[in-house]
Amino acid sequence: MKNQPYQCGIDAAIDVIEGKWKVHVLWALHDATRRFGELKRLLPGISEKVLTQQLRELETDGIVHREVYEGVPLRVEYSLTEYGQALDTALGPLNAWGKIRIARLNEADAQAA
Predict the structure, then answer these.
(1) What is the pLDDT of residues 49-69, one digit of tens each?
(2) Residue 81 needs a FRET pair 20 to 30 A away by CA distance; which of 25, 32, 71, 107 works?
């Protein structure tokens, strides 16, 4: 987490989501509460160490809630906080723009072939 002052709102938002995996973690949590193993399966290529680190940082920023259920085996679930849901809503238009970009790139590839 960067110390303020931020230059603008985008700077403050990027500080929370920067890195290769944070946006993917947020997207995996956008529609459901997930256990660690579920997140790991939904994010092929992420190591357990990095997933743990990203979840901790998102928890520190108030984006992700971590709920521990005692028992054998211990169960831990992750979900978006209300603050995290607001960030998820903000990422929706970026996702839509990305889909348009993918279509444009596929169209350009098809024309080049």
Answers:
(1) 999 999 999 999 999 999 999
(2) 71
The confidence band for 6, taking pLDDT boundaries of 50, 70 and 90, is confident
Phi, psi (rounded to 5 degrees) for 64 = -115, 140
CA torsion through residues 30, 31, 34, 40, sign: negative
Query: What is the DSSP code (8-state) at residue 113?
Result: -
Q: How many residues does the chain have?
A: 113
Tell me the CATH architecture of domain 9-112. Orthogonal Bundle (1.10)
Do residues 59 and 65 lie in contact, with contact meaning Cβ atoms separated by under 8 Å?
A: yes
Q: Which of 67, 62, 35 is nearest to 51 (CA)?
A: 35
User: What's 70's DSSP letter?
Assistant: -
Closest CA to 26 of 2, 57, 49: 57
